[in-house]
Amino acid sequence: TRFVLPGTSASPPKILTLDEVQDAVKNIENMTLAHEIAINSDFKLQPYEPPENSLERIIKDTMHKAYWEVLREQLGRQPPCYDMAIQLLADIKNAFQSVLSKNNERALARINEILDETVIRQQAEQGVLDFQVYAKFVIHIMALSCAPVRDEQIAKLKEIQDVVELFRGILEALQLMKLDMANCLLDAARNDVIANSVEYEKQKFKQFLELYKDGFPETEKWLKRNQSKSSKDTIFNAYLELIDWNTENEFPEMLEMDRDRVIGLQGRASRLCTCASTLAITCAAIPSIAQAADVRKNLAKELGILLQNCNNTKDLDDNIENIWLHVRSVIVTRLQELNQSKLDEPVESALKTQILQIAKKESPVRNLMWKRLLTYIQLVLRTNSSIPAPPGFQEFADEIESLATAFKRISYYNYAVYGEYYHEILNKA
Q1: How far apart are CA 222 and CA 51, in angstroms?
Q2: Residue 71 vs residues 81, 94, 133: alpha-carbon distances, Å
Q3: Structure pTM?
Q4: Residue 214 to residue 232: CA distance in whole angstroms
Q5: Which residues of the chain have pLDDT under 50?
Q6: Which residues, at least 6 apart from 360, have a Cβ–Cβ distance to it below 8 Å?
Q7: SS3 of 343, please?
Q8: Would you kindly state where each structural domain of the chain is located, as residue ranges?
Q9: Cα-only R_g, the chain
């Protein structure tokens, strides 16, 4: 079974086996994987699938189809040929070695006892081999050991009558259970990985500095742009600049591994600010929206959906008209529900102008909301206590907290690895 490790700006996606995942967790020498585990609390390995229409995909699909057709043909003979079927049961037995933890010695021993190849072959030779019995045993073990997310899939296996389709379903479920086991392994080892990964990256960086004496100019510029009274304040300000980034500046070398992640957070921050600005303008102009918590909540959710693919200024320019049209529709519906008069033309015109202006940097409402968002992130960076959502972001409290927490994780990890070097740069300045 192979899994996909997502790529970064400096590294393409990588394909790993379960053994390689286990080795990476133990040895931390796959720095990209260790870094991903440490930074991304939601990181999960994904099952590897060859690209559509690729030669690898065509070969894989053809081989799989042929395998099950041959198995069906062998079992349909008179008398049946059980060679492939016996090997299939052996493969299933071996799969449980990856699906069950080493602590489940009794379960593994029971599986080895029931799925004993010698006994199965003897039953085949005597003509008393019953695959349904073995299938029920395998499904029973899978039901006991699978993650809750697989319960429904395992339960459906019991409804399959065709023996070939049944074992095909069993193998597919076992592949997913291997994936669950790999991700469970990562979760259990996360804290150790973080601690070891920081030290490993620090050691690698020190080794690199011994060979590379030219410095890191973009990192130095980044820090010096944010010069403050203390080195600590300077570094905090520099991290905050990553969210409010000027694309004319080169990205600091020390954050190259997290470039894509930071760019993603920049996009999330921009979308969040746009949503909050739109909702604030709407509530200020339309009291019946402002006074209805459920309407505000639904509008906030809908704005997030409409803007989910907006990653830059051009995307926002292209979508802001749709945002206005949706807001207008919500207002009209709300006024009708309350039997209130239609939206006055001057109010509608002013509201439309303000919302369309959100796409521009000079929008006063957007600027105000952006400052509040940055202040919130700054507070989260500097404290371990819970910070309430700033004014205008109450309907987006979960998203702004998630954004700030993700950014804090990147910043703290980066500082743990490179903080000493940053202080050296600033002390020389």
Answers
A1: 39
A2: 9, 19, 18
A3: 0.72
A4: 24
A5: 8-11, 28
A6: 366
A7: coil
A8: 2-184, 217-428
A9: 29
